[in-house]
Amino acid sequence: MNKILLIGSSGFIGSHLIKKINMPRENKLMVILHKNFDFFDYEDFDAIVSDFTDVDLYHFKRFKPDTIFHLGRNRGSGFIRRFLAANKGKNGNKRIIKYLLKTNLNPRVFYFSGTLVYGNKGSEIADEKSTINPTSFSREYYIAEKPWYEESIKLNANISMLRLPWVVGKGSWFYHHYIQIALKYGYVPLYSKGENWMSLIDVNDCCSLALHISRQSQIFQIINLFNPNLIVRQTEFVEMISEVLNIPVRRIGLRRKIFSDNAFIEAMGFSLKVNTIHMDLYNDYHFKTNDLKTLIEQNIKDDL
To answer: What is the pTM of this model?
Structure first.
């Protein structure tokens, strides 16, 4: 039986990941919950209610996890609040790392990051060797994750940085910025010209792929999680939503403003084709969702 600690288990991806981990019921789980959760969903686990930045670290020593999946992130509206939240997250992550070293706990750690750290690359391809140039919300989020990255490059480190593309599912950016608007206003928004490349993955495939990687004996410092079959331009993505919902597309102009928070504008215009130097990991993994129409239909089926 593996002992797994999940930080950020009540978030969008975390709530899906915990179901995948618990499905065979072969693992013992400790979960750190912050907000927006129902205790009923976590009654079978060792549940700790706390912000990960100030959680009582004695629980780590008590539980002695073999594996940690870290999806915890402090959020803030506006770049000033995000900056403050990111620095709080940075200090919280440093605190956890220091405690793990101090107590000689050496679990495998998988930190969930994002491909926004590579920056807007147009039609260029980014793999794990690509230069870091955080854009949009990642400018601040990268501050918080940097302690784990710096620790991962040390000799014999037991840490992997998982970099995710756009993860599609209910409760995600996909639902808030496309589906909810379409259902409320009667049009599917196309942000700016829509020529940007979007690398997509279904949330269930994302979680299954993360678990697949965690079972490998080899430790990888950085791994891009993505579906090679779901890399499309925003125009293609929006037109498929339009077809599935039978609702027209409307272009939404985005203009940068001086001294304003332009993170959303940068995110919706973000363009990148994700790839990996670890294709062997993908050769023996089977994606359940491989085409754009299925991806959209299965994530809005309750609303059709």
So the answer is: 0.94
